[in-house]
Design a protein that fits this description.
Blueprint (H helix, E strand, L loop, with lengths): L25 E7 L6 H15 L4 E8 L5 H11 L3 E6 L4 H11 L4 E5 L10 H10 L4 E5 L6 E3 L2 H18 L10 E5 H7 L10 H11 L4 E5 L1 E3 L8 H21 L27 H27 L4 H24 L8 H29 L5 H27 L45 E4 L1 H7 L18
Parallel strand pairs: 1-2, 1-4, 2-3, 3-10, 5-8, 6-9
Antiparallel strand pairs: 4-7, 5-7
Length: 483
């Protein structure tokens, strides 16, 4: 179990307390750009729904992305009219920039966002945030591509959405079904760890956040949604798709080259069962077994092809010995690298020598089977020989795996020497108080007001809100967002 308190360590998931009536548990962010017409009905409808159905205190935050119309004035009027509504003004465009700024400053333990057009049925909001409140999940997303979802939209957007998610699955091995649905939520403690790692400030922000969370081993909950396409949407499909593909290439390159290593974020013992150190339980058994079976299956096919080729020139015993010898060398090399993860040339000769001993055992089994077959009848058919050899190889496979695991490639990770005892450290001098449990170290966070109010961030300060000192990122930032 890892117990370090590095910035990559998350606190244990716990069910959030109900708290005081005035303390918001949920902060729903609505990023807008020139939405003076759609903003008032959206906010009032969302507020009415939350006030009627949501059992916790909540806040609605309007994040204005440098609008050039009267959207800031409309947002200010809504904040003054409705106590649970606040507004933040940014002088730079970008949905990702708006979400990062508001989420980094919010004091609500659960953070969500939705598009201003409210294309998603609001009945999915409580199922979206409930797993985060209960402590079951780290992030939650609405999915328009789930089996139970009911979606109304044109064929063009449907094709683009499904093609994009297929690209994510093929290139970044993403397992979530819908990266672009504007209906997501995240726990604040998780956001404080992940947000400094996300580079994009535009539409790819969602995808990058989800990919990093998934690669870090965090739990993503998906909610089927009812979704109706907004025909008046101002999203530029071609430009957005181009920027998304650039983001996929950037993140994929960083993950492939190891410049963005994301080990699973650890949690205290008892929260994640993978962090527990259990005795008498073999490590990596399932993965090694799968790898051994794959290599074994390919080796068996290779062996049978060799046997059939050698059998044309020599007798069955000689053909079997030659085919088994060649395939055994290839099998040992493949298992050494792929199944048991042994890299480098160190010990390669010894491993091959031990593999030949295992080969001798397999040779004895298969040769004995052929001898028994020939003793049982004269001139058995070639198909019968192959059937007997397959059965003999299956029996030898189990023994081969056990010998490989216990003798040829034993797990020595648990044999490291114990640390040398050291003298007790002298009493420590008084130090500065520890940072709040949900704050990212060395990051200044401006809390949003609990009641309706307006916070104005000029261009320089808006940039600083997302660029305060935080862990250095291994790849360079993208140019300024043009959307």
């Amino acid at each position: 179990m890892r117990t370090d308190s590095s910035p990559g360590t998350l606190p244990a998931r716990e069910h959030l307390p109900a708290g005081d009536a005035g303390t918001p548990v949920l902060d729903v962010v609505i990023p807008v750009y020139n939405e003076e017409k759609d903003l008032p009905p959206c906010v009032r409808r969302l507020h009415e729904h939350l006030a009627r159905t949501f059992p916790y205190a909540f806040r609605i935050t309007i994040a204005d992305n440098a609008s050039t119309d009267t959207t800031p004035l409309v947002a200010a009027r809504l904040a003054a009219e409705i106590p649970e509504v606040g507004t933040v003004r940014l002088e730079l465009k970008g949905r990702g920039r708006a979400l990062r700024t508001v989420w980094s400053a919010s004091d609500a333990p659960v953070l969500a966002y939705m598009d201003v057009d409210l294309s998603t049925d609001l009945n999915a909001l409580l199922p979206l945030v409930a797993p985060l409140i209960s402590g079951h999940s780290d992030l939650a997303i609405g999915s328009r591509l789930a089996r139970a979802s009911r979606v109304v939209r044109g064929p063009k957007r449907e094709f683009v959405s499904r093609a994009y998610n297929l690209i994510l699955r093929g290139s970044l091995q993403a397992r979530f079904s819908d990266a672009q649905c504007g209906f997501k939520a995240i726990r604040r403690d998780v956001a404080q760890v992940l947000l400094p790692l996300v580079e994009d400030t535009g539409w790819f922000f969602d995808t990058e956040l989800l990919v990093l969370a998934e690669r870090a081993g965090l739990r993503i909950h998906e909610v089927p949604v009812d979704w109706v396409d907004d025909p008046d949407s101002t999203v530029h499909i071609v430009r957005t798709a181009t920027e998304d593909l650039k983001g996929v290439w950037r993140v994929g390159k960083a993950l492939a080259t190891g410049s963005l290593p994301l080990d699973r974020l650890t949690r205290p013992f008892g929260d994640d069962p993978r962090d527990r150190e259990l005795t008498d339980v073999p490590h990596g058994l399932a993965r090694q077994l799968v790898g051994f079976c794959v290599v074994g299956g390919l080796s068996t096919l290779f062996y049978l092809l060799l046997y059939s080729a050698f059998r044309q020139a020599v007798g069955p015993q000689t053909a079997n010995a030659l085919a088994l010898l060649v395939s055994a060398v290839a099998n040992t090399a493949a298992n050494r690298r792929l199944t048991f993860g042994v890299r480098g040339r160190g010990g390669a000769v010894r491993h091959q020598a031990q593999g030949l001993v295992v080969f001798g055992i397999g040779l004895a089994l298969t040769s004995g089977s052929l001898a028994a077959l020939n003793a049982a009848g004269d001139s058995p058919a070639h198909s019968t020989e192959l059937a007997v050899l397959i059965a003999a190889n299956l029996a030898a496979t189990v023994l081969r795996f056990l010998l490989f695991r216990a003798w040829v490639f034993p797990d020595r990770t648990g044999t490291a020497p114990l640390p040398t005892p050291t003298e007790p450290a002298p009493p420590s001098t008084p130090t500065a108080p520890a940072p709040p449990p949900y704050a990212w170290p060395h990051q200044t966070i401006t809390r949003l007001p609990a009641t309706g109010a307006t916070a104005h961030l000029p261009a320089a300060e808006a940039t600083d809100a997302t660029a305060r000192p935080r862990p250095a990122r291994p790849y360079s930032t993208d140019p300024g967002d043009t959307r």
